[in-house]
Design a protein that fits this description.
The chain is built from 21 helices and 3 strands. The protein is mainly α. It has a single domain, classed as Citrate Synthase, domain 1. The chain has a 3-stranded antiparallel sheet with strand order 1-2-3.
Length: about 475
């Protein structure tokens, strides 16, 4: 599917005339991703220039006082090319749903789950890659994976009580020493070349992230044992699981799925928006992505998966195994009546079960249907939405991605809950860095929304303050 078809699909047939000027591109047979982008970038620049010239003054939305106070929820104020979140269908990557990506993206030999390398190609180009193109990305990331010695030394010197996400963010920031973009910018490169150096930094950073993450894991939970060497014949996820110390083929498949589905969730979430904002200052990808990881570490964002598993573990201890539906229902009501929430349920945008939850549930039904923790999650899926609907406060009573991911990781032996958000971060790099490349290719400016005081807003709507 080309960018034109993906856009038409998202906008609907009635809006198809709005994109009549979109530049079609033939699916490239080149395996070099940068060469493919070099062909796409001028076409997309021309398409957007034409669109802005024709429709630049068109009003597309309305801003209310509640939106301003409510965290800018629902305000249309950001261009983010790589994915769109539909309230009913869930995330679409360049127009493709998660089930479609699972079906169409290339897989490892003998594997059934999509390779994240293929999703990265899709996010950047809008096209489903061939197996050869995905293999090129795998090999390219393997070549770029080595960490500079100062980053390794820093990781080894971190205290063991420093949260894994803090270690990840600090290490990524320190990798700024390797930035091609920062070096080229200081030498006065043309704006037209920005995206090429951002691309090089993004490829280097994605390649190195599994090594950083594995080093953090080994230092904290495996007595500092070696992560080993990258095998250029293996895919990105397989090398990552090897460095972590996991060799179960099912876990490798789970990691391929996990790193694919957590990669992107349009531009308004904290980590994506942060990388976009910091990148708009022409901070290099290392600085922009480190900032994004500090946002992901918050309990209302990526840290939620850790909170869900902690809650499930406590529930299991309190009620015991094989709890009845009636007892579980009473527990949920007691939780809500005490002013607490049921973690893992509800979403700021989605109004149906998160497709990322659904594909993880399908993985569990296939590979671990009798696992006690999964059975508890499945039981909650049957009970919690109805309780939340009865309570009447939740706009969306359905589970999100965080309600499931920790259970799968724990089943395969990764029981270190504090580490889970690091995995989320490795995956999120694919989406936000793909967008950062396009942001610079399209010349997006410094992001600088106008802020107002409460008195100013009151005056704006004709209310006297005081």
């Amino acid at each position: 599917m080309t960018l034109l078809r993906a856009a038409a699909r998202l906008l609907g047939a009635k809006n198809a005339p709005c994109i009549f000027f979109a530049a079609r591109h033939a699916s490239s047979t080149s395996t070099n991703l940068k060469d493919v982008l070099s062909n796409l970038v001028p076409k997309e620049q021309s398409r957007i220039k034409s669109f802005r010239q024709q429709y630049g003054n068109t009003v597309i939305g309305q801003v209310t006082v509640e939106m301003i106070y409510g965290g800018m929820r629902g305000m249309k104020g950001l261009i983010y090319e790589t994915s769109v979140l539909d309230p009913d269908e869930g995330i679409r990557f360049r127009g493709y749903s998660i089930p479609e990506c699972q079906k169409l993206l290339p897989k490892a030999p003998g594997g059934e789950e999509p390779l994240p390398e293929g999703l990265f190609w899709l996010l950047l180009t809008g096209d489903i890659p061939t197996a050869e193109q995905v293999s090129w990305v795998s090999q390219e990331w393997a070549k770029r994976a080595a960490l500079p010695s100062h980053v390794v030394t820093m990781l080894d010197n971190f205290p063991t009580n420093l949260h894994p996400m803090s270690q990840l963010s600090a290490a990524i920031t320190a990798l700024n020493s390797e930035s091609n973009f920062a070096r080229a910018y200081s030498e006065g490169i043309s704006r037209a070349k920005y995206w090429e150096f951002i691309y090089e930094d993004a490829m280097d950073l994605i390649a190195k992230l599994p090594c950083i993450a594995a080093k953090i894991y080994r230092n904290l939970y495996r007595e500092g044992s070696s992560i080993g060497a990258i095998d250029p014949s293996l895919d990105w996820s397989h090398n990552f699981t090897n460095m972590l110390g996991y060799t179960d083929p099912q876990f490798i498949e789970l990691m391929r799925l996990y790193l694919t589905i957590h990669s992107d969730h349009e531009g308004g979430n904290v980590s994506a928006h942060t990388s976009h904002l910091v990148g708009s200052a022409l901070s290099d990808p290392y600085l922009a992505f480190a900032a994004a990881m500090n946002g992901l570490a918050g309990p209302l964002h990526g840290l939620a998966n850790q909170e869900v598993l902690g809650w499930l573990t406590n529930l299991q201890k309190e009620l015991g195994p094989d709890v009845s539906d009636e007892k579980l229902r009473d527990f949920i009501w007691n939780t809500l009546n005490s002013g607490r929430v049921v973690p893992g349920y509800g979403h700021a945008v989605l109004r149906k079960t998160d497709p990322r939850y659904t594909c993880q549930r399908e993985f569990a039904l296939k590979h671990l249907p009798k696992d006690p923790m999964f059975r508890l999650v499945a039981q909650l899926y049957k009970i919690v939405p109805n309780v939340l609907l009865e309570q009447g406060k939740a706009k969306n009573p359905w589970p999100n991605v965080d309600a499931h991911s920790g259970v799968l990781l724990q089943y395969y032996g990764m029981k270190e809950m504090k580490y889970y958000t690091v995995l989320f971060g490795i995956s999120r790099a694919l989406g936000v860095l793909a967008q950062l490349i396009w942001s610079r290719a399209l010349g997006f400016p410094l992001e600088r929304p106008k802020s107002m005081s409460t008195d100013g807003v009151m005056q704006l709507v004709g209310v006297k303050s005081g």
